[in-house]
């Protein structure tokens, strides 16, 4: 009887631990979401996890004692089985990921943007790195003696070969337009323009100009699409780009690309500037 009592008490303790764990997860996630810039996607995942743990704990307390024990054993068995499968897939099928195995990928460029910039400069090739406008939010823009007020750039350096980024092993570059965006200057001559605003997806990370969203559209629309997107942009920087550049040309359409993963988090940071 004492042994059964211990088994029962352990199952009860397990249920209350799940309650405590779910409460801790949701409280921590809420605090980090409100005050520490946690992105929306992670907050949603943690909220779902906390809800699942709460439901499991609530259900366990409602079950009969023997059923509760069996359910807990089933949960642990499933978790252990999943981890065993994960280990087998990692080490038997894919093999361990080591620095040596990464080097086996042929022609993969592991240099960072600064190293790319330095290497091109040594060859007397004029390139510039892409610097996101969001970089200047923390300092409230650029201040100089001759500036009437601090200035936040909304694009990169104009008319320059620009280093974009590398996600596939090869760096993507683009020739910036007269305003510093990822466009060909010809798109500004069309009288019926479409304008795109957004973050890195719109900017074109990390593909060649003809393969990004604006490039694909311009193939079909006779160079009428202007890309004002830039990596790191949130809603306020997008709005600023529209006011500064799109408003003057009165575009036929404006396409605002919203990224659920980080745009609201970006907005919190932009509101501080």
Task: Outline the structure in words.
By secondary structure, the chain is mainly α. It has two domains: about 100 residues, no CATH class; about 160 residues, Rossmann fold, CATH 3.40.50. Helices cover about 50% and strands about 10% of the residues. It contains nine helices and six strands. The protein has a three-stranded mixed β-sheet, covered by helices on one side. The chain has a three-stranded parallel β-sheet with strand order 5-4-6, with helices on both faces. α1 packs antiparallel against α2 and α1 crosses α3. The protein is elongated and about 75 Å long. It starts with a helix and ends with a helix.
What brief labels describe this structure?
273 residues; mainly alpha; Rossmann fold; 3-stranded mixed beta sheet; 3-stranded parallel beta sheet; elongated
**CATH topology descriptor of the largest domain:** Rossmann fold
Uncertain stretches of 5 or more adjacent residues: 1-8
Task: Name the average pLDDT.
Answer: 87
User: What would you say the CATH architecture of the largest domain is?
Assistant: 3-Layer(aba) Sandwich
Structural class: mainly alpha
Tally the helices.
Answer: 9
Question: Using only CA atoms, what is the Rg?
Answer: 26 Å
| Strand order in the largest sheet | 1-2-3
Count of the domains: 2
* DSSP summary, beta strand count: 6
Helix proportion: 40-55%
Could you tell me how far the N terminus lies from the C terminus, measured between alpha carbons in angstroms? 66 Å
Strand content: 5-15%
Main sheet summary? 3 strands, mixed
What is the helix/strand order? HHHHHEEEEHHEHEH
Name the CATH class of the largest domain.
Alpha Beta
Q: Any idea what the shape is?
A: elongated
């Amino acid at each position: 009887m004492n042994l059964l009592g211990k088994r029962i008490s352990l199952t009860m303790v397990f249920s209350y631990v799940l309650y405590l764990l779910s409460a801790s997860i949701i409280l921590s996630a809420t605090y980090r979401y409100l005050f520490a810039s946690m992105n929306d996607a992670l907050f949603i995942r943690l909220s779902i996890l906390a809800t699942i743990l709460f439901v499991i704990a609530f259900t366990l307390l409602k079950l009969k004692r023997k059923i509760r024990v069996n359910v807990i054993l089933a949960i642990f068995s499933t978790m252990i089985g999943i981890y065993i499968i994960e280990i087998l897939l990692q080490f038997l099928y894919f093999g361990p990921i080591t620095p040596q195995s990464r080097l086996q990928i042929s022609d993969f460029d592991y240099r960072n943007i600064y190293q790319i910039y330095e290497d091109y400069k040594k060859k007397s090739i004029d390139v510039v790195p892409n610097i996101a406008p969001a970089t200047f939010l923390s300092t409230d823009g650029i201040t100089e003696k001759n500036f009437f007020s601090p200035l936040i750039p909304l694009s990169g350096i104009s008319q320059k070969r620009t280093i974009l980024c590398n996600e596939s092993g090869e760096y993507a570059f683009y020739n910036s337009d007269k305003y510093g965006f990822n466009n060909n200057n010809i798109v500004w001559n069309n009288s019926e323009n479409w304008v795109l605003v957004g973050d890195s997806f719109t900017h074109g990370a990390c593909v060649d100009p003809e393969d990004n969203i604006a490039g694909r559209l311009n193939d079909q629309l006779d160079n009428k699409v202007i890309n004002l997107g830039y990596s790191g942009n949130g809603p306020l920087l997008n709005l600023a780009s529209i006011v500064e550049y799109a408003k003057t040309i009165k575009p036929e359409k404006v396409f605002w690309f919203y990224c659920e993963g980080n745009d609201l988090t970006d907005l919190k940071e932009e509101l501080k500037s």
